[in-house]
């Protein structure tokens, strides 16, 4: 598919998925996600101690973070994406200008090192200069199966489907593939920690939302492990299972083969 864009893509070098948690939810949700991934929780940081990182073992660079929303925040609990588009010390402003030219809208620029934007379909993402180079490898669990959080899935209403797909292809400069009428994925470069998938929604929605996906080589064992940690199964499909974490945030466990991101798996 053509991106349909006449401006230079950002070609991000790293991505971090942020779980934006409602007030009081962190105490229920974070122990679950630490146990699910096998990652440790960093100390809280920020003016309101609102940010923390899930730290992979063995020195791998992080690709999962959390943000505690304040009681006055207008945004509901959600997932957002940070894309690294500048090196430390560089200005992300030029990348934001290019993103706006492709159809993004600036929501806030509270710091020199990041800009908050939304896609044409309303999905919130940030352009940042957070470095990352070494992705985490899949965890191996008792019994021998493996899993890893390796994908952000954008849930896109029908009326936004083509515009949202074209936007992300143009923004990243990645090749867009349609595996079936319901799904399109962007081919990430080698060494990138997160895949980006677009899923067509059956029901109408006011804006694009997103959820996390895990890859595993034994879905039944992985689902059972998550249930033992406090997840609830919402639906079982041919190739994936939909669950909710203890904070009622939905996510999926898929049959995709878990692998490090040294090469793209189509």
Radius of gyration over all CA atoms, rounded: 18 Å
- What class, by secondary structure content? alpha+beta
CATH topology (fold) name of the largest domain? 2,3-Dihydroxybiphenyl 1,2-Dioxygenase, domain 1
Tally the helices.
4
| Total beta strands | 17
Mean pLDDT: 91
Low-confidence stretches: 1-5, 262-266
CATH architecture type of the largest domain: Roll
Note the main sheet: 9 strands, mixed
Total of domains: 2
Tell me, what is the CATH class of the largest domain?
A: Alpha Beta
Binned strand content: 35-45%
H and E string: EHEEEEHEEEEEHEEEEHEEE
- CATH level-4 homologous superfamily of the largest domain: 2,3-Dihydroxybiphenyl 1,2-Dioxygenase, domain 1
Instruction: Specify the overall morphology.
Output: globular
Key descriptive features of the protein:
266 residues; alpha+beta; 2,3-Dihydroxybiphenyl 1,2-Dioxygenase, domain 1; 2 domains; 9-stranded mixed beta sheet; 8-stranded mixed beta sheet; 17 strands; 16% helix; globular; disordered N terminus
Give structural notes:
The protein has 266 residues and is of the alpha+beta class. The chain folds into two domains: 14-128, 2,3-Dihydroxybiphenyl 1,2-Dioxygenase, domain 1 (Roll), CATH 3.10.180.10; 139-254, 2,3-Dihydroxybiphenyl 1,2-Dioxygenase, domain 1 (Roll). It is built from four helices and 17 strands. The protein has helices spanning 26-37, 93-101, 161-172, 219-228; strands at residues 14-21, 40-41, 51-55, 64-68, 78-84, 105-111, 114-118, 124-128, 139-140, 146-156, 176-180, 183-186, 195-200, 209-216, 232-236, 240-244, 250-254. Strands 9, 10, 11, 12, 13, 14, 15, 16 and 17 form a nine-stranded mixed sheet that branches. A hairpin with a 5-residue loop joins strand 7 and strand 8. The longest helix has 12 residues, at 26-37. The relative contact order is 0.18. Mean pLDDT is 91; it is low at 1-5 and 262-266.
């Amino acid at each position: 598919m053509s991106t349909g864009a006449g401006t230079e893509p950002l070609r991000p070098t790293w991505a971090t998925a942020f779980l934006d948690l409602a007030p009081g939810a962190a105490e229920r949700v974070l122990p679950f996600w630490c146990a699910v991934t096998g990652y440790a929780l960093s100390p809280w940081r920020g003016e309101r101690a609102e940010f923390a990182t899930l730290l992979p073992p063995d020195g791998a660079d992080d690709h999962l973070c959390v943000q505690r929303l304040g009681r006055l925040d207008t945004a509901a609990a959600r997932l957002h994406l940070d894309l690294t588009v500048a090196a430390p010390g560089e200005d992300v402003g030029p990348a934001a200008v290019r993103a706006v030219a492709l159809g993004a809208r600036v929501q806030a620029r509270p710091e020199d090192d990041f800009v908050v934007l939304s896609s044409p379909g309303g999905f919130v993402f940030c352009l940042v200069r957070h470095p990352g180079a070494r992705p985490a490898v899949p965890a191996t669990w008792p019994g021998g199966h493996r899993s890893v959080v390796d994908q952000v899935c954008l849930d896109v209403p029908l009326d936004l489907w083509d515009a949202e797909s074209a936007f992300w292809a143009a923004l990243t400069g990645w090749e867009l593939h349609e595996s079936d009428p319901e799904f399109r994925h962007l081919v990430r470069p080698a060494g990138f920690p997160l895949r980006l998938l677009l899923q067509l929604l059956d029901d109408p929605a006011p804006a694009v939302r997103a959820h996390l996906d895990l890859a595993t080589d034994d879905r039944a064992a992985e689902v059972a492990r998550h249930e033992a940690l406090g997840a609830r199964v919402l639906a079982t499909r041919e190739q994936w299972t939909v669950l909710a974490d203890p904070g009622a945030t939905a996510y999926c466990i898929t049959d995709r083969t878990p692998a490090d991101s040294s090469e793209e798996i189509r």
